[in-house]
Amino acid sequence: MSDFDVDLFVIGAGSAGVRASRVAAEHGARVAVAEEYRFGGTCVIRGCVPKKLMVYASGFSEMIEDAAGYGWDLGPARFDWPRFKAAKDREIARLEGIYQGVLSRAEAQVFRERATVVDPHRVRLASGREISAAHILIAVGGAPFVPDIPGAELAVTSNDMFELEALPRRAIVVGGGYVACEFAGILNGLGVEVTQLYRGERILRGFDDDVRLHVEEAMRARGIDIWTGTDLAALARPGNGAIAVTLDRGGEIETDLVLCATGRRPTTAGLGLESLGVGVSKKGHVVVDEWSQTAVPSIYAAGDVTGRAELTPIAIREGQAFAETVFGGLAVKPEHVLIPTAVFTQPEVGTVGLTEAEARARAPVEIYRATFRPMLNILAGRDERMLMKLVVGEGRKVLGCHIVGHGAGEMIQLAAVAIRMGATKEDFDRTIAVHPTAAEELVTMRTPVGAPVASPAMAPERTPAA
Ligand code: NDP
To answer: How crowded is residue 129: how many other Cβ atoms within 10 Å of its Cβ?
Structure first.
């Protein structure tokens, strides 16, 4: 097929790399893959999947509490971290095997070592062996970091959270993004005393303001002590086994674990890209065009390393589009619009499209919002409310949908299909409600926020099917 050893050399066997390898092989490409850690990447090994298992594990404490209201007497419950960790590790090993299976069915040559790029058509493996390739795909992802403060080595990152030997009694979680909020909820649900420090005014920057407020209040009500406008200044080990945390605004707190969930950085350092003329941004992301191609025509990049949207389904789409375009003779661009996403906080967030603030900055909008106590919470004696919000723009088009509460991630997937198809508010209104569910609120909100309420039954704050 060509004078090169392989048609495609993929660096990184995560979501983007494995998908690209498989699809390229299906189109007849000879593929090689290098991975220095485990197969499956962040998502499978130390991200989405083990995190979601931890969310499930931590959610049982709420279910056990709520069960009493439904007539159950369960007696004292105890969580066994080592037992959970072993079960989780077995599942991750199983999934890693599936990823390896995909590569072996694609007849990819697999190198379990680090690879760097030597020239536009050559990579060098840690063993010193060099392999030539018609195309190179950089799919190395990213890694979490600890801010550069005195005592930084005493903090852990999300990578370490999956490997803890034991759960701490107290923990400080730093950050206000996806990872910080999700781990604050996980630890709290598992019985750890959690303090969350966030340097900004309100957690989940970038999400709809009603969502941010709703989640922050609900997390506080569940027992997470959230300190906004507060950051770490230094960490020290005073000698009693605990960690002393000095705050930027003065004061000190003692804890047993400090998790820095302060973001992720692309792992491009030392790959040899800059010297070849592959553009690398200030933050270290590989600069690509809409086809995932870098400034060096034979070198492409996909997934978190490009910083376009650090989400598994996006990495998969980017890997697929690259392979279909380069090896399948199709012209497929990965799209980065209307990306639905869930944050597995407790309560959970599901969101797609524009926030109210983003939409208002473009044109006038109508807002439909309902907050209500879902039926599940009533007998449980739980006060937590759900939030549903639709942002409606010109032509009555639904521009954004934001949900907080049980099942928000599942619901938003389906709402995203409708919104993607250009659904109007009338399409939502015409859709028959599924009763009794929480999701039915999405199709029964009749009165925009701020408009006169026509009848008590149409009030924006109500219980489902009231
Ligand atoms: P984010 O960028 O979402 O959040 C980082 C947080 O840390 C922000 O609150 C930021 O504050 C704060 N921060 C950054 N630097 C510092 C610092 N030096 N000192 C103190 N605070 C700091 O990163 P995450 O690691 O939470 O998530 C990374 C990406 O992974 C997400 O963007 C998301 O795309 C993906 N992800 C998706 C998940 C999902 O789909 N459920 C789950 C987990 C991750 P500020 O707001 O002020 O910038």
So the answer is: 11
Among 348, 367, 349, 347, residue whose Cα is nearest residue 357: 367
Residue 248 phi/psi, 5° resolution? -65, -25
Backbone angles phi, psi at 255, to 5 degrees: -150, 180
335 within a domain of the structure (yes/no): no
Residue range 18-35, pLDDT digits in tens: 999 999 999 999 999 999
Indicate the DSSP class of residue 152: G
Q: Is position 285 annotated as part of the catalytic site?
A: no
Stronger pLDDT, 458 or 416, i.e. the higher one: 416
Based on the domain organization, do 69 and 33 belong to the same domain?
Answer: yes
- Among 2-6, 95-99, 155-159, 168-172, which stretch is predicted with the lowest mean pLDDT? 2-6
Q: How many separate domains does the chain show?
A: 3
Is 349 domain-assigned?
A: yes
Distance 147 CA to ligand 1 centre (A): 12
C-alpha to C-alpha distance for 82 and 115, rounded to whole angstroms: 35
Q: Which residue's alpha carbon is at the smallest distance from atom 22 of ligand 1? A: 262
Domain that holds residue 308: 6-143+265-326
- The CATH number of residue 109's host domain is 3.50.50.60
Residues 161 and 85: beta-carbon distance below 8 Å: no
Residue 221 and residue 226: Cα distance in Å, rounded? 10
User: Going by CA atoms, what residue is nearest to atom 2 of ligand 1?
Assistant: 263
Distance 343 CA to ligand 1 centre (A): 12
Q: What does the mean pLDDT of the chain come to?
A: 96
Q: Which residues line ligand 1 (CB under 6 A)?
A: 144, 147, 174-180, 182, 198-200, 205, 231, 261-264, 310-311, 341-344
- 326, 351, 375: which is the final residue of a domain? 326
For position 240, what pLDDT does the model report?
Answer: 87
What percentage of the chain carries pLDDT values higher than 90? 95
User: Is residue 455 over pLDDT 90?
Assistant: no
Is the model more confident about 2 or about 159? Answer: 159
